[in-house]
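User: Here's a chain of 366 residues. Predict its fold as tokens.
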Amino acid sequence: MYDDHYGLSGRPFQLTPDPAFWFDTATHKKAMAYLGYGLSQGEGFIVITGAPGAGKTTLVGHLMETIDPERLHVIKIVTTQVEAEDLLLMVAAGLNIDGTHLAKAQLLAAIEKQLHAVARQGRRTLLIADEAQALPIESLEELRMLSNFQAGGYPLLQIFLLGQPEFRARLSDPRLDQLRQRVIAMHALDGMGADELEPYLIHRLSCVGWRGKPRFTNDAVAAIYRWSGGIPRKVNLLAGRVLLLGAIEEITSFTGADVEAVIADLEGDLSGAMPPSAPARPAPVPAPRDAAQAAREALRREMSAPAAPAAAPAPAAALDAELAARFARLEARIEEQDAALRRVLTLMVDFIEVEDARPTRRGAAA
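Assistant: Prediction complete.
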């Protein structure tokens, strides 16, 4: 679809995070600086928080592309209410330890032994825990205990914690005083600034072969920013829907009105209800049977509707002409709807064929 209409080689605004689209906003650049500082220290905890879609996972994916795997062994865990013992098993698995039949003391001993083995290879071990706000207090305390493992006065394990904004409140719990004292850096990811949005759009388009089509007017960019607040995933969601509109309606230059129409449509989808007023475009495209049925019902309503009072009866010829005009309008409406549906179906088939032919890209999971 994007290849045919815009001449692009892929989807510029996909929702799945991909470090290949990394863009240095001010807040992400600062987060990378904190992560770099933490890696240089080689100890303690680094905490990065941000709203859903702010780019935490993309940040980690970009970090993974910048580190040397010969010098750093990385264990990445995506946590969802993982209890302390299960968390230890996940850490053990990241060290190639089968801990399923080990008691806790044996499991901890095996983890420490393997951390020493990694250190003897001249490598450090980094543990990255994503969605850390879901970790129970006991699991966070278990991570703190793991950070105690040392060799010759040097820590064997460093930990990055990534979570949503409520994780900061979790860290204020008195039971986590000792962990909080080991946090050497903390940063909150914000949305990108209004002046960064247009360069962000152009950057992502350029990653898939953009040559000036499509383009966004200044009021279109402003409308995208108002709705998204600069959160990358929300920007991608809206921009992707705008491009879909453009492919269907054959638009290559988007205005603020186009974006607002998509926002109304999108908010109707997200709320589970139709928007208050249907936008001029894109108009919903019914299935052929639905379109024909709607046309027939409309015709029956028009035919059965009582005639407006008139000073004198209209001649039969005038009535025939009016009925013929109604039939013509309804037939034209059905033809327009059928044409739009065929265009959508063609775009969908083309898109599926392109996606099936394209090799799987490496990426991380706005």
